[in-house]
Amino acid sequence: MRRRKQIDPVKVSDLWEHFFKYVTENHPDWHSHCDMEELRKCFKEEYAPSLILQQGVPSKPVCGFGTMMYRLRRQKKLKCSKGKVSFYEKTGYATVDQHRRPVKREGSEGVVQQNREYPALCEECGVILNSASQQQDHIKGARHRLNLTKQYLKKNRDMLIEDKHGVSIVSKEGLDVEDGKITINVTEGEISVTELLIRCSDVPVTLLLVTPLVVDSRVNVSDAKGVSEGKVSLLFQKGDEYKIKVRCEARNYGEIRTPIAFAFKLSSSETFHIARNVVFSVRGENQEDLQQTAPYSRLSKLRLDPFSKDVLHGIQFAFSDGGKLTQKVSLEHYNIPSQVNRLLNSNKPEEVDELSSPLTVNNYSQKFRSLLYSEEHQMKVDITRYDMKGVTMKKSRQHRGLLNLEVPGLAENRPSVLRGDHLSAAKSEGSRDKTYRGYVHHVEQEVVSLSFHESLVSNFIENMTFDIQFTFSRYPLRLQHYAVDPANLMMDEMRSVLFPENQGFQPTDPEKIKSKNKLFDNKLSSNFEQVQAIYHIVEGSSKPAPYLVFGPPGTGKTVTIVEAMKQQVYQSKTNFILACAPSNSAADLIAKRVLENGPVAKSSLLRMSASSRSWDAVDPELKEKFRECLNYDLNHSIYFPSADDIKEKRIVVTTMVTAGRLVLTDCFKDHFTHIFLDEAGHAVEPEALIPISGLLPRNGQLVMAGDPKQLGPVLRSPVSKSNGLELSLLERLMTTEEAYKRQPNGKYNDHLLTKLLRNYRSHPAILEKPNEMFYDSELLVCADEIMRNSLQTFDQLPSKGFPIIFHGIEGKDEREENSPSFFNVAEAQQVMKYTNDLLEMRGGKAIRKTDIGIISPYRKQVRLVIHQVQKIQKLLRKKNWTDIKVGSVEEFQGQERLIIIISTVRSTREEFLQLDRDYKLGFLKNPKRFNVAITRAKALLICIGNPHMLSKDENWNGFLRYCLENNAYTGCPYTPDTEESEMITLTEKMARLNIPKLTFTEEEAAAVNDPEWRGDR
Predict the structure, then answer these.
(1) What are 633-666's pLDDT values in tens digits?
(2) Quick check: keyword Nucleotide-binding in the entry (predicted)?
(3) Angstrom distances, CA of residue 368 to CA of 350, 723, 860
(4) Within this chain, do residues 687 and 703 fall inside the same structural domain, yes or no?
(5) Are residues 700 and 792 in the same domain?
(6) pTM
């Protein structure tokens, strides 16, 4: 039951307002309306009793529900009609979290969706069914029946674990029996034996059978008389005891769960059952460092008291104006319209103009406007998760007049706070008649230095407490709105760029391409696909349509477009290039590569960073070798050259958002002849449009490079995701526009798109499965042979010569204190064991710490893997292994390591039976994240996870089977056919236990059944 917020004492005259506040805080799901009876029940059963307690009045409440409603109507807080209560929007309901809306599910809650469209999903088994006959066969099959059996056992769990008729089952060693579970801690590699004691304290009973409900070679259940073997039954009299021995070989980290069923018979021939779940928790040497610090308790949403509208401002950060770049265009605010806000709060996104309509030329601007409104709507909700209550600040020792605030998670952009941003503060105690707006002047790790109004700074006392509200910069959103605004987006000109037509080009003669093969990077000359892409970009073959470079992992897409830029600069003095990427790190990489080995002088390139980017964040190599290419002065402050100075540069490199700075000067529209967008698959389409709609001339060339099979844009709103915003421009063109699809001959039109095929990263075994699953088996192994084979003899490989390990661990999901993040101690210990083995290798290649990368496949922003990363990092620091990178999949996109270790973290949730599978795999069922995770390794890939859990996901299951087929699996017992043998064994045991026959109709079966904040601008 949800814990209600305590009510403070209140005056009778303020009662109506107090009740209304109670409703808004405790029933946020009533964001716009509710039933009258619901509100009446809330008043009588929740509010009034709490109020009586607070007021100390033991009798009746101070007013009735009718009086309360009268007051609320008079104050225009709500209106009533036909038993419904509607709340006025102006009453202060907060923006409603789109994730909290009820999910509409079609059909029954049964195992297989009852629709006539195929493919259909069997939710119990995680199987895709492609026809009605296949569905019927599946329902009758052993696997499906086994899963229904598990549901039956789960449903009757509470009954099964109870002691009955004077019979109890306890641990002989005195271990606690908690909720039917007995846990034995054991060290890896040991053999553990525990004894269960059956006690009879009442009427005589007969022990018919003792049997484990799973088959596990590591566990053996036995007894002196042979009851567990089905040889005899034993009669117990009052006061009798009998021992059952459970032996376990602790071969692997994790939890070895053995549910054991006991069947008894009374003198009346009535049978009954008792069950115990014996869990052997296999621990390692680092167990104490990883243990839960405190039990998990759900943290209720922080609710701050209202901030005053009387705002006192600090001093805004003054950016350097050296070589000022004048903004001539006024950028509108593009606030969310009240009607859109109301519809999103009312769970009616389908009524938002064009939001759910297919994208067309005619609705292009309006649809993207609505998508951006939906995204911002959710951002407003998400940013409140970082609000702080009752925190202290300190006077800055380095920056006179500023106050320092420590913000946990800031170093990981959770939240993102940059120079020039602001936040609001109010005193936690005493008068709240003022709100203080603090402006960010400096950011260092997790500390921000803020400028507040003089009245606060001069009266500041150490240990004063404040409530803090964070905001996010709307500048990137405003630029995206500007880019899609029909007043700025000339669709007549842009139509051929955004909706290109199939022009039916003839394939280019390969000899013609090779004849132009004079490259600055000679290593590219032997790669036909790279040469082909460069040729067509230089020739402008696709114009006016964009040219796409489809670059799977390790195929060199960035070096390809960089060579094309060099060729353009070399061939014509009238060519001027704008190169953009979604992130600063990607833009820095472009700048470095362009300046290497080629015709582009330092004086001809500008790497233009945003005002908010600090000097410390710039790539060290750029600062050391190419300082004159950066827009920082000698004091490390940002400055923007004049438009005339910028126009002298042959190549300008920025993020897509910072390119908006050039757009708003209104003097570059016809300047750049070529616009290159690298990592184009990471950007939402309106973000890519900032440089395209604002700076691409009518006869200009647009080039985009990326991989639609890897991670796309990071979004927060489920509404914007499901309606098309997570589809980048690159992916949309490749999936919806005929011009960019494969032709009847199976090839792409090389005048418009080149797919790079030569992988220079991975061992053939590592590349094979993602190549088959995502790239039509077209990728070619071209990685350096010595490098890729350097770990084929690693001692821990189950199959020498095959440098992949899938290590199965049945761990335990844990959380601690108020953190919603999961961690898995067993997996963390196994990660450390492999890391230690690799660093202590003797013979062969010496492994450096920087050769190893450790991935957990969730976004930190979703707050699911933070603790796993922190737990592993704690162990790394203890061993002085801090050079080993540990992070999420997003942090590893575009990177590579000699060795990658993946910890999937989530495992079977703690349940009575190991048989029960938790299907909450939504965070794993992401093909793009899976693809990125398994394609980072060069010479060795180690995956650690629960095979029973992962096998329910199509992609992980395919990879798991691949490892099994190549003898690369180790760890807990697992085979894909486990279900079939389990079904036979379990059915036999149920019969022997006299548990009713488990047969289900479909109807009966149905009855059983918080992203990183962007820091790049």
Answers:
(1) 988 889 899 999 999 999 999 999 999 999 999 9
(2) yes
(3) 14, 10, 27
(4) yes
(5) no
(6) 0.79
